[in-house]
Amino acid sequence: MRFTSQQRLDDGVLEREFTLGEIPGILWTPASTSAAAPAPLILLGHPGGLHQMYPRLLARARHAVAEGFAAATIELPGSGERPRCATAEQARADLRRALAAGEPVDDEIVDRLVVPLVDKAVPEWQATLDAVLSLPGIGGPVGYSGGVIAIGIRLAAVEPRIAAALLFAGSFVPRGMFAEARQVTIPLLVLLQWDDEGNDRQLALDLFDAFGSTQKTLHANMGGHTGVPPFEADDANRFFARHLK
Fold this sequence. Notes:
This protein is α/β, with parallel strands linked by helices.
């Protein structure tokens, strides 16, 4: 991990940009942390495009840091300035074409788009965990918050350092990953926008049912993809406070 910039925001949050190999990322930490009382870490998932997503990620990070958490995010494979994958680009174009035409999205398209992304992104998140948790003042347990939900599923199933997850049900999930969802047993909070124009609502409900967790909660709100109510951020902090502190 190599830090490339650092700034103290007006609310005291320390924001540091970093690279981990070829992967760019951002780390936000409280004004004061110590090895004796390390801040629990929340990984902020997103759909890709770190610079485009920055305002929303910053708002989420500030909200988490205000409650005593550290927050970190990284750029997804094939997004931002990272090299593109021709197969994924074609799958994304096919997905957009189906949605624009009002047609069902074929499972084969979802598999081509999501499975390679999950296979590459999850080890990168785990490497990020290794690096961030080695820093003074940051410790476990760790939470995962956001999307892509398929990445969250895999991380929650294979990474024992993830103790709780808040998942955004706003992206397609390969049906083959439902078996992985049944292996997820950590506490879950799932956010579903009822009128999300790019999401399969029934698939999201079926996925929630498939999770193996005995502590799982679904918050369904009216509105489109970007219309998550602001109060959900407060509920997210309370959820992570219960399970990470």
